[in-house]
Design goal:
Elements: H1 3-6, H2 9-12, H3 15-35, H4 37-46, H5 57-73, H6 79-112, H7 119-138, H8 146-165, H9 180-215
Helix pairs in contact: 3-5, 5-6, 6-7, 6-8, 6-9, 8-9
């Protein structure tokens, strides 16, 4: 099996591979929400209930991608579902790139300031890096358009604002507890970068589609 085939549309969009990707992401999503269990409980006890939706950042990003894969497996025919599909896909790309990079960067940042590097950190870095890679890999198969990307951008920026306004951002390594201001700035900047990356990826996808139509 050649490397070019492994990156091809025929392989990546084959139903066996899509089902494998779906279940891997679904299991990772469930595990992610379990991972956030303590913070979710704390938020429910000491914060207004409506803030709970902004707490589990990475699992929600993984959920968006899982739903997007489900739409690839079963493309919707209803107009309303097509709109929902585009929004889910845009959210999947922006948030998966953002939190995929964010988690790995925060872990390494904490280690650079003297924190320990345990096996869970390696696991989290691998899984979160995979989130960013798969989102960029599959954006060419998604149907999301610019309005969906704008909605995804607004949601992600809103999530950042909720996190650092009400103190419900993901738990940081102990070595970064006195660097919250810097982490906040980094988070906003990474969100903007992720939006631009998603926009460029969609632009490249649209150009490729257009060139294929011209050839046809």
């Amino acid at each position: 099996m050649s490397l070019s085939y492994l990156w091809s549309r025929s392989f990546l969009t084959s139903r066996p591979f899509l089902w494998l990707l779906f279940w891997c992401n679904l299991v990772g999503t469930v595990y992610g929400y379990i991972w956030y269990g303590g913070q979710l409980e704390y938020t429910l006890n000491y914060h207004p209930m409506w803030q709970i939706v902004f707490v589990p950042d990475s699992p929600t990003a993984s959920l968006f991608f899982t739903i997007s894969i489900a739409f690839l497996l079963y493309p919707p025919h209803l107009k309303s579902l097509k709109v929902i599909r585009q929004i889910m896909e845009a959210l999947a790309v922006v948030t998966s790139v953002k939190y995929g990079i964010w988690a790995s960067a925060i872990i390494l940042w904490g280690v650079a300031q003297g924190g320990p590097m345990v096996w869970q950190d390696w696991m989290l870095m691998a899984s979160h890096t995979a989130m960013a890679v798969e989102a960029l890999l599959f954006v060419r198969f998604f149907t999301c358009k610019w309005i969906a990307l704008c909605l995804a951008a607004l949601w992600t920026l809103l999530n950042d604002t909720m996190d650092y306004t009400f103190g419900i951002y993901p738990y940081l390594p102990r070595t970064l507890t006195d660097d919250v201001t810097q982490v906040r700035t980094f988070t906003y900047m990474l969100t903007l970068v992720s939006i631009v990356v998603a926009w460029l990826a969609m632009l490249a996808r649209n150009r490729k589609v257009s060139s294929h139509r011209d050839i046809a």
